[in-house]
Amino acid sequence: MVIEQLDRTGPSQTPARDNDRDSLVGLYFRDASRYQILTEDQEKRLSRRLSLCFRVIHRELALPEDTPHTFREIIGSLGDAGALTTRCRRAYHLSLDCRRTLIQSNLRLAVHIARRFGQHGIPMPDLIQDANVGLIKAAERFDPSKGFRFSTYAYWWISEEVKRCLQRGVRVVHTPEGVVDEIRELQRVSLRLNRALGREPSQAELAREMEASPSRIGELRALASREVSTDAPLLDDSSITLGDSLAGSSRMTPDHPMAERDRRRALRAMLAELTERERDILARRFGLDLPAPETLQVISDNLGISRERVRQIEKGALKKLQSRFVRLDEAYGA
Hints:
By secondary structure, the protein is mostly helical. The chain has 3 domains: 2-168, Four Helix Bundle (Hemerythrin (Met), subunit A); 177-224, Arc Repressor Mutant, subunit A (Orthogonal Bundle); 269-331, Arc Repressor Mutant, subunit A, CATH 1.10.10. The chain is 62% helix and 0% strand. It contains 15 helices and no strands. It has helices at 2-9, 24-32, 40-61, 71-74, 86-104, 107-116, 124-141, 150-168, 177-197, 203-210, 214-224, 256-271, 276-285, 296-303, 307-331. Helix 6 (107-116) packs across helix 8 (150-168), helix 13 (276-285) packs across helix 15 and helix 14 crosses helix 15. The N and C termini lie far apart (81 Å). Residues 1-5 and 7-18 have low confidence and may be disordered.
């Protein structure tokens, strides 16, 4: 079994190659080697201890009889419980220690499985990361009462998680597994139709074959395309990059919403210097918070005063703001 082979290898004979001894992977493997692999007897004792903890918590919480004795189900049920007894809390903390030991003692197994898939173009740190995710999932779902070795159970979960990593491929944003399956099916159907038709199948033909809408086929094609770095050069001398050609307008800058907020605050502070009628007329004449500015005649009819009086109020309000603004500029040395 792989676990015995790793145990015989030992920390001093780690399979890390010389050329990555100082790399991130090499450092991680040496760190993982600090944790000893459990022997069969040690793992059995740990499983019995974990099973006892689950039975105690199961009885304390009066869970249904068919509740699986796994960390995910038993410990997950503690979130719905109120005050716990001392015995239950002790069982909870002991189960946490058992789970941590199971994970730490099998870190080298996760690295070993990740290295088996290292020739598929996926960076080794990504493979190891997903292998560890599989190891944690195994620890969450392991039922010690079944009598199986945890290393055997974890081997399957780690392998499956690494295979999913290979399916996702090298992407900045990971695609959900269900979408990855759709993309792989689209690729298979596209290849089959290409051979049968002697040409590239259309989007409608692919949609009909996969029993999906043409728009969904377009979405899958877009998701299947590779990401392009904004640092990718557009010229041979790398003087211009893709990011240089994607610069947005000034309204798209991150500080645009803040600048707009500051302008509104300054405008409210200026209008606060005016009377209520002056603020109303200026706001309507310049269309502030209105679909469009209003004419003197519209304002005159609405307020019941002459057009000339509206014009005088507007002129006086503007002069008041101008004098106030000039005084502020002089005060701050503008």
